[in-house]
Design a protein that fits this description.
The complex is a heterodimer. By secondary structure, chain A is of the alpha/beta class. Chain A has a domain of about 180 residues: P-loop containing nucleotide triphosphate hydrolases (Rossmann fold, 3-Layer(aba) Sandwich), CATH 3.40.50. In chain B, strand 7, helix 9 and strand 8 form a beta-alpha-beta unit. Classes of the chains: A alpha/beta, B alpha/beta. Chain B: It is a peripheral membrane protein. Chain B: It is found in: Cell membrane. Chain B: InterPro entries: AAA+_ATPase, ABC_Ni/Peptide_Import, ABC_transporter-like_ATP-bd, Oligopep_ABC_C, P-loop_NTPase. Chain B: GO terms for molecular function: ATP binding; ATP hydrolysis activity.
């Protein structure tokens, strides 16, 4: 099987303005995801995990390196458009990522309209179905983002990505701003999407506990490099790189509850 | 962690009694903090855990009488070494804040004045409460920076906050809080904006200062894993109400209130796997001022229909083997 999405030798430099220094955010990074795979990217702030995920969909342009989609280099604008038919991106802050002046139905249906898929009526039906899939009501399509809570907005963002039937969704810290009880609802929704529809997920997070729960394979990033990659089980039971060991030792262990 | 029995025999530094915080302009709506009561002893760290809207941050601000506009303390009192902070005037409060009671905030980038050096930030706090010579100020500043694990303090006194990493900034903020040797330290999510590896150091620091200096610490967090590392006792809040409290070990390993159970079951930890899925609490938090009368959790409670639930008049149940572990629900007590 060939990777659905692949990045080879990605570097990214940000030019410093004024007195600030140039920053090398990514220093030669390889990444790949197979169809239906759930891959986690973990790292601390400044490790380059968000930059990598943004380069994968072309929100950010790599300084050097190639993104391959279905084994073919993505170069022209048409290539990027084709890539976005398969890959959708979900942002961290659901208060910033939804247009406040568009109804939920308009926001979700927007992508379908841009692609010219179906009649207005068919589009409305798909929107309604997708809303139900993420645990909202079909009638919510008429409401505006302002009336929804953070968790509900993140469901809307998910619906916005899923209505286009992507093969992979890239989630950049999408549960970080949510309360624990709501975070679990969204995580379980991702688990269902993967299990029932085979959607692949790139899950970017600083929280090892969340990544461990959700992902099959994990990349650990540190200062613009991938320092270790392994299956979740092996990474946690037998970490190789010093930085991974250090990171694991810092996770608050908590107390394991009994009897619930 | 020191044993709970040992701690409860020590002096009470901070006593919060029936603290109730209400909205100014909407009489008749439910209070945002409803009857919060707990004691903090010497060398003890009490964690307050809750989700957004639980009232945990407002409670911590109320401890220094720093509530924002729009809310006020409508009932109850806060006794810090016998002084009632709810009755204190602005002048008394100025003398208390930073000296008897200190606070550490969530975001050290926002909490530190960007135009003052580390040395200035520290001497400001020191001069506000004492009349020391420049030499003594410098000595104490270096001493407190060493206490908070700040590397190379002599040469860093001239650094500005923007020249420091997030973890070092939070250490400066903690040094500012500790420089006058307060008896009570209030920390509101002090590690939430920091990376995990930095978080660990800050938690150890707060724990160490609490135990070694005999400070009473109130530590607010949404993260049960963090609370397990830093606190002796924990108070669980939901929508302004305390639903459960007790020693950290008993509350987290043997939770009794349905909300506490739900919170623990929905938080991923290092042992969560897909085979043992997270169990989220259905529904969402009530909006501000719309907390149900009686049990705040009744609309989302999975155990409401079982046992002997009386949602309108919940009563406290107590663990027979440890009377300091109690919860506001008796559906299990039978």
């Amino acid at each position: 099987m060939k990777p659905l999405l692949e990045a080879v030798g990605i570097t990214k430099e940000f030019r410093g303005r004024g007195r600030s220094l140039d920053v090398t955010a990514l220093d030669g990074v390889d990444f790949s995801i197979m169809p239906g795979e759930v891959v986690g990217i973990v790292g601390e702030s400044g490790s380059g995990k968000s930059t990598l995920s943004r380069i994968l969909v072309g929100i950010e342009k790599a300084t050097s390196g190639v993104v391959n989609h279905n084994d073919k280099a993505v170069e022209t604008p048409a290539d990027w458009r084709a890539l976005r038919f398969d890959v959708q991106y979900i942002f961290q802050d659901p208060y910033l990522s939804l247009a406040p002046h568009m109804s939920v139905g308009q926001s979700i249906g927007d992508g379908l309209e841009i692609r010219g898929e179906g009649t207005p009526k068919e589009r409305a039906n798909r929107v309604a179905k997708t809303l139900e899939m993420v645990g909202l009501k079909a009638s919510d399509a008429q409401s505006y983002p302002a009336v929804f809570s953070g968790g509900q907005r993140q469901r809307i963002s998910l619906a916005r990505a899923l209505v286009l039937n992507p093969k992979v969704i890239i989630c950049d810290e999408i549960v970080s701003g949510l309360d624990v009880s709501v975070q679990a609802q969204i995580l379980n929704l991702l688990v269902e999407l993967h299990r029932d529809q085979g959607v692949g997920i790139v899950f970017v997070s600083h929280d090892l506990r969340v990544v461990k729960y959700l992902c099959q394979r994990i990349l650990v990033m540190h200062r613009g490099l991938i320092v270790e990659t392994n299956t979740t089980e092996n990474l946690f039971s037998n970490p190789q790189h010093e930085y991974t060991k250090h990171l694991l030792s810092c996770v608050p262990a908590g107390l394991s509850p009994s009897g619930i | 962690m020191t044993s709970a029995k040992n701690i409860s025999q020590r002096n009470v530094l901070l006593s919060i009694q029936n603290l109730t915080i209400s909205l100014d302009d909407r009489p008749g709506t439910s209070p945002v903090v409803n009857g919060l009561t707990f004691d903090v002893h010497e060398g003890e760290c009490v964690g307050i855990v809750g989700e957004s809207g639980s009232g945990k941050s407002l409670s911590s601000l109320a401890l220094l009488n720093m509530l924002p506009k729009g809310v006020h303390i409508s009932e109850g009192q806060i006794l810090a070494q016998g002084k009632n902070l709810t009755q204190a005037n602005e002048k008394d409060l100025r003398a208390l804040r930073g000296a008897l009671v200190s606070m550490v905030f969530q975001d050290p980038g926002a909490a530190l004045n960007p135009s003052r050096t580390v040395g200035k930030l520290l001497s400001d706090v020191l001069e506000a409460h004492s009349d020391l010579s420049r030499e003594a100020i410098r000595e104490r500043s270096i001493e407190v920076l060493k206490e908070v694990g700040f590397p190379d303090p002599e040469s860093r006194l001239k650094s500005f906050p923007f020249q420091l990493s997030g973890g070092l900034r939070q250490r400066v903020a903690i040094a500012m809080a500790l420089i006058n040797r307060p008896r009570i330290l209030v920390a509101d999510e002090p590690t939430t904006s920091l990376d995990v590896s930095v978080q660990k150091g800050i938690l150890q620091l707060i724990r160490q200062r609490t135990v070694e200096d005999g400070i009473g610490c109130v530590f607010v967090s949404h993260d049960l894993g963090v609370i397990a590392e830093v606190a002796d006792r924990v108070v669980i809040m939901y929508s302004g109400q305390v639903v459960e409290e007790g020693p950290v070990a008993s509350v987290l390993t043997n939770p009794k209130h349905p909300y506490t159970k739900g919170l623990i079951a929905s938080a991923p930890n290092m042992t969560s796997t897909l085979a043992n899925p997270l169990r989220p609490i259905p529904g969402s938090l009530p909006s501000v001022g719309r907390t149900p009368i009686g049990c705040a959790f009744q609309d989302r409670c999975p155990e409401k229909s079982t046992g002997t639930c009386t949602p309108l008049k919940p009563t406290w149940s107590v663990d027979p083997s440890d009377s300091s572990h109690r919860w506001l629900c008796h559906s299990e007590a039978k």
